[in-house]
Queue: 2 jobs
Job 1
Amino acid sequence: MTGTVFLLGLVYVIFFVVLLQGVGMALPVVIVLAGGLLVVQYWTSDKIALAAAGARIVDESQAPELHAIVQRLCLTAGLPMPRIAICPTDMPNAFATGRSPRHAAVAVTQGLLDRLEPHELEGVLAHELSHVAHRDVAVMTLASFFAMVAGFITRWGFYFGGMFGGGFGGGRDDRNNSGASFMLVLLVSVVVYAISFFLIRALSRYREFAADRGAAILTKSPSSLASALVKISGAMSRIPQKDMRMAEGLNQFFIIPAGLKSGLSTLVSDHPPLEARLEQLRQLERQLETL
């Protein structure tokens, strides 16, 4: 994760320098627009994710067993109790969201509750609480800031062409300089967006590994999470494609993405391959047995 964050930061520094040279006075406009989107995403990520999943917050009287497991895990991990939500869908999955442990929410689907044994559910919830403890939503949001800037310029650059290099006014030399500056920034934006696309997804995969490890240590039972992952991935193949497509927008939050990927597509996936996750959990199981 450290290496990936370093590379991502290096790419962003180069991008910022090019922006400063090529955009000039328009740079604050681009930064403010992207920064505004970032702030909205950062502060409302929990509400957006819960609303997108159709999740409803449940209290202890509505889901006593679910609350009991989360409370026990939070006490062990030293975390504040998050809000608990249930999504009324048969697709088995879970996710955590929120900018900090004090503003977190953990959601599970009805399909997950129907399929998992209590110890398996505990493993899944421990995974999600590890995301909360690591502030993964905040980390991934901040990591994507300049990627958002690059994407903004790449997708809408031609509409803002007048901003670059002082606009299209002036003589022919000014217009040529303006066009050259614009094309340079647009080209670099495309490159930065492409590189950051892969780096951010690599960072996401590493954080999934970290959450699996955190769950295994928290519960002292890596096999429980492994069993849950196998059940969830197996059940995914029996979920109607319509429901899977509707859920794909939340893949970055889910413990198992909707629509399993393999082969070269894992390079652009925000989750590690299932077998790699199971192998890590098997290794942790062996390590815990020797303690």
Job 2
Amino acid sequence: MSMKRRDFLMAGLALNLGSKALAQQGGGAQDRAGRRSETPVRVAKTTRLFKSPGLYPNALAVMTDSPGGLWIGQQKVTAQSAQTYHLPLEADRDEMAWLVDWNGKLLKTVKSQSRNTSGMAYGNGCVWMGANADPFGIFQIDLNSNQISHRQIPLSIDGNGGGCHGVKWHNGKLWIAALRLGGILRVDPTTWAPEALIRVSSEEKPRLHDAAFDADGNLWVVTGNNSTSYADGKAGLNKYDGKTGQLLMTVDFQPGSCDPHGLVWHDGRLISCDAGIHPGWKGMESPSSGYIFSIEMM
């Protein structure tokens, strides 16, 4: 199926989810005369803050409840990816959510049965871990490591929701970076009903990763190209209007930047993490593997 036809079908799907559905149609904002303007493009740099408590940090969430801090979700390699990346396969397959303070000090550890975790949220007193490998789905876990629920990303025909690259809690809803849908899907965490879809994937940057809402309610999403090494990787960001889904800005990272995976907004800036594993690359190829880092616009 061609990219244009797939974009058309997915946009139609988003609009059919309900009257409140959001569908990103590409291009920039419109002026008052309805003319399409070019989407602004910015460049960003990254600054290392501290290292994760353990290997493969691939998801972030802000804890607003006491004691507060940053949740870091672990993405252990699968049996297949261990061979691909030439990395050891750990005997304990459970993956951790580490709560650290903003200097990186470990405060709490929660264990989950999520696999190849690639995205997490914190909300309603629980962590929500997005599994990017079998058994897939979103794992809701309380702070005592008790699993509350495990549900697949909605809108699949066969009950397998497919891969996940990001999860965020915002205004009582879950926003899921659904690879099968190529965008960010808003889901009611109680009924599990899908409510809105913002298309993200494009021909230039087909990869999408985690998402975060800024203080103004706008949605930022990590994007990237298909690459075979750190040297030819081209990560980016898309900024969307949180009320309409309209693309407001795209961001490219300067060469030598950390490799963004997870994403949160804290204290007026974006924070991300470098997992150390990236499809198509060698394991731990990025010089910033394992680091939590900030993102600054230049």
